[in-house]
Amino acid sequence: MATAADSTQNDNTLRAICYNRGSLQLLDQRKLPLETTYLNIRDASDGWSAIREMVVRGAPAIAIAAALSLAVEVFNLEAFKGTPDDAASYLGNKLDYLVSSRPTAVNLSDAATKLKQVVTKAVASAAASDSNSVFQAYIEAAEIMLKDDVASNKAIGSYGASFIKNHQQNSQKLCVLTHCNTGSLATAGYGTALGVIRALHADGVLERAFCTETRPFNQGSRLTAFELVHDKIPATLIADSAAAALMKEGRVSVVIVGADRVTANGDTANKIGTYSLALCAKHHNIPFYVAAPLTSIDLALSSGKEITIEERSPKELLHTRGGLGEQVAASGISGVITKTGTDAFDIHSFVERAASQNA
Q: Which domain of life is it from (predicted)?
């Protein structure tokens, strides 16, 4: 991947994904908060590497970045001599390749499935006289996903803020704890769980946000803290192990996190550490919420036991900076990092209601 010049947004909006037709740049989140560097993504191979190496992360952002990396590739193809069917096969194989970069987040596979459906319809269309028409249909569909993700996040933020205010006794002084990073850096913009925090702050009812370090890759201290400071939201960074004590002292009103995948019974796969936060919240009678788009829900899986759990490199635990820095653990010790889950609830009726409202 080629490194682009440092990039800033004229509207002061924090964005991890900068896209114009034929061009894609991803903010290298491994270097935050000390460096703001964008990488040029020229094709699906660059997109795969950026996702796998956590240049871009967060389930919604991963899906959008993958879709757009392929859109950039096909837009810039100098010559494709195949038929519309050949174009469809080309796109399908590339999408399968992109899905292999991060298996846990369902948004990526969901996006690939929807884009394949668009491609199939384009081939069947009477307008599909050549491969370019199929590529054009794909590009337009990927761009719509980018736009829809931002709109979805803002809707989550607005609804989540209203719901929390209506279910809290003291809704004018809320202290919200969150884990990992679920903001503009993890999505196409605004965020899911962090989007709710943004909305509460905009409503003037947020007293303080608490973000955990989120070991071992420190998405909380590096990324969530970065976003909270950027937006001038009152916030405090805490050690992962400090959450239970903070809850015991009565300083947490609500816990809200994001999700990589939600199964039919409500089991939720998210960053490691989420499960322990859910248990602590339950013990202290603190509401625990998961904020995620419908694309994170996978009704094909009955429970979290069926989720393909991503196991990261032990170096992320044994070395500083999520595996990029110096060794800090004793030589010879093994390390295991996986995603984890939260509680369960029946989600079928919720999805049915949401689908009918969107119809």
A: Eukaryota
